[in-house]
């Protein structure tokens, strides 16, 4: 899980940030990105793809990552902007914001997926990076926990959609709630509801 970081250090980079997002697929809510810089040589065998962890384990690792990381940067793009610029561009914008919110700034990026970020920092994209890089996996955990917390807050405003349970994803219950109540302010109008 730290081979990509080791190779980047061997190439002469020092501040290496893993970057990932949560919330590309839901019908409602923001897309949230995180960027994480760990100290040189950092390892933690429990950190892995956030989708493979229970909510409780993610919360525990979230605290450990925040404590152990040199820096954590965050970015979020709301549904109205997603509708205006599309989900891919919104994801890349959230990732760019997350990187820009790091202090110190990184000198190398490891990005989950296939798309580079429009930022003048050397970078490498990694398909399934959240399963292959400790810093990308850490970013996936941070992004997922923060997005879930946001959706829990939205549940208080819009309880009829049960965001507490579905986090905005298109579950049968959520789709039926949209049919009954219509879309709320945080629904993505550019996403089709089957």
Please explain how this structure is put together.
This protein has helices spanning 3-10, 55-68, 79-85, 87-100, 129-132, 134-157, 163-166, 172-181; strands at residues 16-22, 31-37, 71-77, 108-112, 123-126. The chain is α/β, with parallel strands linked by helices. It has one domain: 2-Layer Sandwich (Nucleotidyltransferase, domain 5). The mean pLDDT is 97. It has a 5-stranded mixed β-sheet with strand order 3-2-1-4-5. 44% of the residues lie in helices and 15% in strands.
List descriptors:
194 residues, alpha/beta, Nucleotidyltransferase, domain 5, 5 strands, 44% helix, globular
What's a concise summary of this model?
The chain contains 8 helices and 5 strands; from the N terminus they run H-E-E-H-E-H-H-E-E-H-H-H-H.
Layout of helices and strands, plus pairs?
Blueprint: H1 3-10, E1 16-22, E2 31-37, H2 55-68, E3 71-77, H3 79-85, H4 87-100, E4 108-112, E5 123-126, H5 129-132, H6 134-157, H7 163-166, H8 172-181
Parallel strand pairs: 1-4, 4-5
Antiparallel strand pairs: 1-2, 2-3
Helix pairs in contact: 2-6, 3-4
- Mind summarizing the main beta sheet? 5 strands, mixed
CATH topology term = Nucleotidyltransferase, domain 5
Q: Using the CA coordinates, give the radius of gyration.
A: 17 Å
Spell the H/E element sequence: HEEHEHHEEHHHH
- Main CATH class: Alpha Beta
Number of distinct beta strands: 5
Q: State the low-pLDDT regions, or none.
A: none
Helical percentage: 40-55%
Global geometry: globular
Total helical segments: 8
Bin the strand percentage. Answer: 15-25%
């Amino acid at each position: 899980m730290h081979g990509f970081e080791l190779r980047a250090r061997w190439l002469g980079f020092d501040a290496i940030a893993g970057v990932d997002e949560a919330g590309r697929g839901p019908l409602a809510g923001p897309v949230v990105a995180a960027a994480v810089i760990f100290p040189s040589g950092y390892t933690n065998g429990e950190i892995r793809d956030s989708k493979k962890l229970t909510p409780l384990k993610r919360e525990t690792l979230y605290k450990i990552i925040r404590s152990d990381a040199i820096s954590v940067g965050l970015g979020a793009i709301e549904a109205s902007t997603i509708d205006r610029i599309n989900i891919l561009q919104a994801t890349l914008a959230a990732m760019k914001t997350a990187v820009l919110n790091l202090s110190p700034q990184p000198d190398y990026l490891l990005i989950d997926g296939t798309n580079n970020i429009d930022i003048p920092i050397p970078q490498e994209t990694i398909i399934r990076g959240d399963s292959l890089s400790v810093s990308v996996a850490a970013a996936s955990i941070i992004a997922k926990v923060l997005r879930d917390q946001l959706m829990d807050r939205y549940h208080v405003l819009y309880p009829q959609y049960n965001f507490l349970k579905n986090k905005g994803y298109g579950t049968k219950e959520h789709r039926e709630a949209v049919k009954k109540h219509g879309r709320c302010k945080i629904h993505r109008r550019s996403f089709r509801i089957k």
